[in-house]
Amino acid sequence: MTEPHAVSALVDEPVDVEVADSDLVYEGRVWDVRSDTFAYNGSEIVRQYVAHPGAAAIVAIDDEDRVLLIQQYRHPIRHRDWEIPAGLLDVEGEPPAETARRELAEEADLRAESWEPLVSIFTTPGGNDEIVHLFLARGLLPVGAAHPREDEEADIRVEWVPLAEVVAGVLAGRLRNGILAVGVLAAAERLRAAGAAGN
């Protein structure tokens, strides 16, 4: 039996495996599918996965502690799910924080005076290499229409919902988008801790 770790000692560990072969199985419009052959624990293993550019996402909270939510159609799940603004890291050399600023303007016609990194997450490590960097945005100001919306974005629904209601919706299983869930729970804890420190 292993010794229990202190919470602060827990960390995901990068592993440098020897990849003998990496084939592009499918080249997509947004992301690709790769098949890698690699050595691990004395075995030769083949795994297919989605090669993803990564993304940035924004928990935008206004002065009334309401979160900006976006609802749009997502074909793989056949749902119009509730999400937070997010976008791909698809501009060469653009840092995730700058992507977040751009996406907030493009998806919500807003800019923020205050930005804080929240967390970074691997969304589906068994099936893709996507990493999403989440940011907390405060001091929100309108910028006017910044981006034409088409396809699934054409009928985006935007709502401002109290943070506590969003957290309750996540915990009740009514809001199942993983990036939204991690983002609002992290933001709620960040704001709770800041409030406790101020008392």
Describe the overall structure.
There is one protein chain. With 199 residues, this protein is an alpha+beta fold. The protein contains three helices and ten strands, in the order βββββββαβββαα. The strands form three sheets. It has a four-stranded mixed sheet with strand order 7-4-9-8, with helices on both faces. It has a three-stranded antiparallel sheet with strand order 1-2-3, with no helix packed on it. A three-stranded antiparallel sheet has the order 6-5-10. A hairpin with an 8-residue loop joins strand 8 (110-122) and strand 9. The radius of gyration is 19 Å and the shape is globular. The mean pLDDT is 92.
Produce a short descriptive summary:
Helices cover 22% and strands 41% of the residues.
Biggest sheet strand line-up: 7-4-9-8
Strand residue content: 35-45%
Largest sheet: 4 strands, mixed
Helix segment tally:
3
Cα-based radius of gyration, to the nearest Å = 19 Å
**N- to C-terminal distance:** 42 Å
Please provide the count of β strands: 10
List keywords for this structure.
199 residues; 3 helices; 4-stranded mixed sheet; globular; alpha+beta
List the helices and strands and how they pair.
Layout: E1 18-26, E2 32-40, E3 43-51, E4 55-60, E5 66-74, E6 79-83, E7 86-88, H1 96-108, E8 110-122, E9 131-142, E10 157-162, H2 163-171, H3 178-198
Parallel strand pairs: 4-9
Antiparallel strand pairs: 1-2, 2-3, 4-7, 5-6, 5-10, 8-9
Helix pairs in contact: 2-3
